[in-house]
Write a structure and sequence with these properties.
InterPro entries: CheY-like_superfamily, OmpR/PhoB-type_DNA-bd, Sig_transdc_resp-reg_C-effctor, Sig_transdc_resp-reg_receiver, WalR-like, WH-like_DNA-bd_sf. Keywords: DNA-binding, Phosphoprotein. This is DNA-binding response regulator. GO terms for molecular function: phosphorelay response regulator activity; transcription cis-regulatory region binding. The structure is a single chain. With 223 residues, this protein is of the alpha/beta class. It has 2 domains: 117 residues, Response regulator (Rossmann fold); 96 residues, Winged helix-like DNA-binding domain superfamily/Winged helix DNA-binding domain (Arc Repressor Mutant, subunit A), CATH 1.10.10.10. It is built from 8 helices and 14 strands. The strands form 4 sheets. The protein has a 5-stranded parallel beta sheet with strand order 2-1-3-6-7, with helices on both faces. Strands 8-9-10-11 form a 4-stranded antiparallel beta sheet, covered by helices on one side. β8 and β9 form a beta hairpin. The radius of gyration is 19 Å and the shape is elongated. 30% of the residues are buried.
């Protein structure tokens, strides 16, 4: 799952980023309406977390634009505006849910999961190859029922390779998918992530392995 956070508080952005990474989700963070429009146009996000008080305008403007240009994209408003009239205005403008600051990170995760379940475009099947099983809804990777713990970046990597099992995934695609918005992943960082996942798969006897296709990318194949 890939989420976009539109929030101008660096501290809150940092906290939400930690929460989402611990849950196995990728999070892109921007702080202005302009950057948010560019991020939504450039990437496919499963959910937008939207603050309303932004430096270059009201978040409701972005919400109205999303409803015109990206109709099915779920939006969760996160804001300090907590009056009944303000909540009604946000929901009437097209928000799928509304969460008032301050909130607990567990409630934020629960709201996100509920919204993603209601969005048919975000429902993703369990991925399997060899003895490996990955559930995108929970970001849990298992081998014959035993959990294989991996950091968020490595979990995202194996998810992409599982979706394309038996096919070569270009390096550039992986670098883009595993990068943070505005902070590209280097080739060396990708190679390190691949090396770590490869060793983990080998030690767990998963029945699959990652192969390097020189000059092109990587593929996951059954052995």
């Amino acid at each position: 799952m890939r989420l976009l956070l539109v929030e101008d508080s660096p501290r809150l952005t940092e906290l939400i980023n930690e929460t989402m990474h611990d849950a196995g989700w990728r999070l892109d963070g921007v702080s202005t309406l302009r950057d948010a429009e560019a991020a939504i146009a450039a990437r496919e996000h499963d959910l937008v977390l939207l603050d309303l008080g932004l430096p270059d305008g009201d978040g409701l403007q972005l919400l109205q634009w999303i409803r015109r240009e990206h109709v099915g994209l779920p939006v969760l408003i996160i804001t300090a505006r907590g009056s009944v009239d303000e909540r009604i205005a946000g929901l009437d403008a097209g928000a799928d849910d509304y969460l008032v600051k301050p909130f607990h990170h567990r409630e934020l995760l629960s709201r996100c999961r509920a919204m993603l379940r209601r969005n048919p475009n975000a429902i993703q099947p369990v991925l399997e190859a060899g003895a490996l099983r990955y559930d995108p809804a929970t970001a849990e990777l298992t081998c014959e029922g035993a959990v294989l713990p991996l950091p968020p970046r490595e979990r995202s990597l194996i998810e992409i390779l599982l979706r394309e099992v038996g096919r070569v995934v270009p390096k550039r695609r992986l670098e883009t998918a595993l990068s943070e918005y505005g902070q590209e992943l280097s080739s060396n960082a990708l190679e390190l992530a691949v090396s770590r996942v490869r060793k983990r798969l080998q030690s767990a006897e998963t029945g699959v392995q990652i192969e390097t296709v020189r000059g092109i990318g990587y593929l996951l194949r059954r052995v």
